Amino acid sequence: MDERKKLCVVFDIDETLIHFVSKTYKSLWEGLDPQIKNNLRAVEYNNNIIILRPHIQELFNFFKQTPNIRVGLWTYSEREYSEDIANVLKKELQLPDDFFLFTWGAEDMDVSEDSEEIELPKDLRKVYRTFTNFNKFNTFLVDDLYGNLKHEVNVQNCILIQPFAPFGTSKVRVNIGPEELLMSVNNEEFIGLIDICKKVLKDILGCDVEDINEAFTTDPVFTEKRIKRMGLLSLLKTYAVQFIKMLTLGQPRETPNFIMVQPQNYLPFKKGGFKSHYKNYKNKITRKKRKYLK
C-alpha cells in the first residue's frame, strides 16, 4: 500500500487536548462544585492537575483502531512538556508506546536569524521534511490559537477548535463561572473531529497513485474543492479583520483582530456589513471588560 495514503493529525496541547492547572491554582479544582468535577476527567501529575478534554478517549480509541492515521503533538512550550503530556496520555488513555509520531515543542520551530523570534509558528513544512510520507495532501493541525494557523503555510491544513478552558484561557487561572464551566463539561468538538477524520481519510484512500503524485505537495486537505467533496462546507468559517477562511469546530476565541464574520457581513463597506459587525463586536468586548472590572 502507498504510504502516502495515510493521514497525519497534529495536535496543539494546552486548551486543545487538555487544560493544565498548576499547583498554584490547584485550589480552584479542589473547590469545584462536585457535580461539575465528577463530569470532568482529571489526572494528578507532579502535584498539578491535568483536565482531559471531553471525548478524548473516544477520539484516541478511534486513532488507535485506525492504522492509517498517525498523531503528533506540537506545543509552544518546551519539548520536554510535550513528552511529559504524551506519557500522561499514553498511560491514562491506554495508548501503545509508539502511538505518537512525534512530540515537539518550541525548540522545533524555525527562528529568524535577524530577530531570533519564531518566523512561522508550527510551520507544517517541518513535518513534511521530517516525515516524507506526509505533506499538504494528508496532514492537518488542530489548534485553539488562530495565530498558529492563519499564515499561508498552515491555513488550508488546519482546524481551529474551541478552547477547552474550565478555568479560563489566561495563564492566570480563575473561576470563570458556572455557565462557562458547563460549556467545558458539555464540550462535543472531539465527536465532530472523529467525523472529519473519517471523511478526510476516505478522501485520501479514494485517490489513485496518479492523483496523489499530482496533488501530494500542492493540494491542501482543506481547499474549498476538497471541503465540498467531503461534505464539510458548513464548518468553513470566514474571519476578519483580514479576511481568512478556516475549518472550525465550536466557538473559537475571538479578539478585535480576529472575528467570525457572518455571511451577510462579508462586504465590508456596505451598510450593516463588516464595519457594522466589527463596531458591534468592539462594543461587546468593551461591555465584557466593564463587567469584569466591576
Keyword list:
disordered C terminus, Rossmann fold, 2 domains, three-stranded antiparallel sheet, 18% strand, 294 residues, alpha/beta, eight-stranded mixed sheet
**How are strands sequenced across the largest beta sheet?**
6-5-1-7-8-10-9-11
Shape descriptor:
globular
Order of helices and strands: EEHHEEHEHEHEEHHHHEEEH
Mean pLDDT: 88
Q: Do you know the CATH topology of the largest domain?
A: Rossmann fold
User: Regarding CATH, which class of the largest domain?
Assistant: Alpha Beta
Low-confidence runs (pLDDT<50, min 5 residues)?
A: 266-278, 284-294
**Sheet with the most strands, sense and barrel status:** 8 strands, mixed
Descriptive report:
The protein has 294 residues and is α/β, with parallel strands linked by helices. It folds into 2 domains: 7-205, HAD superfamily/HAD-like (Rossmann fold, 3-Layer(aba) Sandwich), CATH 3.40.50; 262-294. It is 33% helix and 18% strand. The protein has 10 helices and 11 strands. It has helices at 26-30, 34-37, 56-64, 79-92, 125-130, 178-185, 189-205, 209-215, 224-230, 274-293; strands at residues 7-11, 18-21, 41-45, 48-52, 69-74, 100-104, 139-143, 158-161, 236-240, 244-249, 259-261. The strands form 2 sheets. Strands 6-5-1-7-8-10-9-11 form an 8-stranded mixed beta sheet. Strands 2-4-3 form a 3-stranded antiparallel beta sheet, with no helix packed on it. A hairpin with a 2-residue loop joins strand 3 (41-45) and strand 4 (48-52). Helix 3 (56-64) runs parallel beside helix 7. It is globular and about 60 Å long. The model is unreliable at 266-278 and 284-294 (pLDDT under 50).
